[in-house]
Amino acid sequence: CELCKTKLSLLIMWHEARKQEKKIKGVMIDFQRRAERRREFYERTKSDSTQLIRLYGASYKLHLDPTFGGYDATMIPWQGDRDNMISRYDVQIHLDSIPDCSKLPKHEVSREEKAEEARCNYERYRPLILNTYKGVSESEALAKIDLEELFPSTDTHKLRKGDKHKSQAKAA
User: Fold this and answer.
1) Do 70 and 87 touch, CB atoms closer than 8 A?
2) Long-range contacts of range 37-46, CB-CB < 8 Å, 24 or more positions apart?
3) Is the overall model pTM greater than 0.85, yes or no?
4) In this predicted model, what pLDDT tens digit does every residue of 91-112 receive, in sequence order?
């Protein structure tokens, strides 16, 4: 049955073509998803690169050993005062004097400035009050902030995209 063999070979060929088409479609979908993730990453870094900056530091105490030979050579009096010795590499050398803050004139604060200061204080302390009310400990709140800094939310970027689309639709 020659006709059956041709139909069978056509069916097999069609089946293989469908299989290849599905593979190509899967590859294209993967490529699109990867491109979208890449675009979101670059938009995040482009929009506010300061969110990616992490600074770490540790305080330390400098213990100078006066028996060390180079100690006297690097220490000089500050503003001619032998009681106040500083390193010659210290930035304080470039300060002419430290002004006395008590001698500065008093600045009177207007009602608008007081109201603005009250609003700023409200915004400043609101998260602390809310965390206290919710019973969230300070370490938990700091851990949450640390996670938000490590993994910034993409929701804000999606909202910004939505706003752009809305404004473009209104403009048209």
Assistant:
1) no
2) 40/154, 40/157, 43/157, 44/152, 44/154, 44/157
3) no
4) 777 776 666 777 777 778 899 9
